[in-house]
Amino acid sequence: MTITEEQFRRIEGCFPKQRGNVTISNLDVLNGILYVAENGCKWRSLPKRFGRWHTVYTRMNRWAKAGVLDRVFTALQEEEIIRIRIEALALDSTIVQVHPDGTGAEKKTARNPSDAPAGGGAPRFIWLPRMLAEQ
Asked: Cα separation of 55 and 3, whole Å?
């Protein structure tokens, strides 16, 4: 699912005007959004040809909140450029386990002061001597 420049010109009125120092065009952002939607990949896995993943994600998030994406997808349907169906799915985190890659950044490996052996501090455990029963 990619949009050509000729197809983009037909729906260009749905997008806000680009202002400031913009490095990625609205066409590239839209194609990046469609790539992620089609392949179901992570934003960080977005190919470099679409630009920085964070820029594409930020603009998509802004467009979603402003209703731009609703207008764009409606225009894509009306112009018969792409036939898409938008569905929402909610998953309860109590039944879905997170893959180890999705747990976030690597954890710190440096030892905490509390992990150090009890050299001069309070003992970590107390020995409780017990009498053995005589037989």
From this structure: 19
Structure tokens at 1: 């699912």
Q: Rounded to whole angstroms, what are the CA distances from 15 to 49, 74, 101, 115? A: 21, 12, 35, 55
**Residue 56: is its pLDDT beyond 90?**
yes
Q: Structure tokens of 122?
A: 């309070």
Q: What is the pTM assigned to this prediction?
A: 0.60
Q: Cβ(69)–Cβ(63) under 8 Å?
A: yes
Task: Name the one residue in this structure whose structure tokens are 């569905």.
Answer: 87
Tell me the H-state helices in 14-124: 26-39, 53-66, 68-78
Tell which residue, 70, 62, 71, 57, has the closest CA to residue 29.
Answer: 57
Instruction: Show contacts of 116-125: CB within 8 Å, 24+ apart.
Output: none
d(CA 106, CA 66): 35
Residue-wise pLDDT tens digits, 87-113: 666 666 666 666 766 666 666 666 666
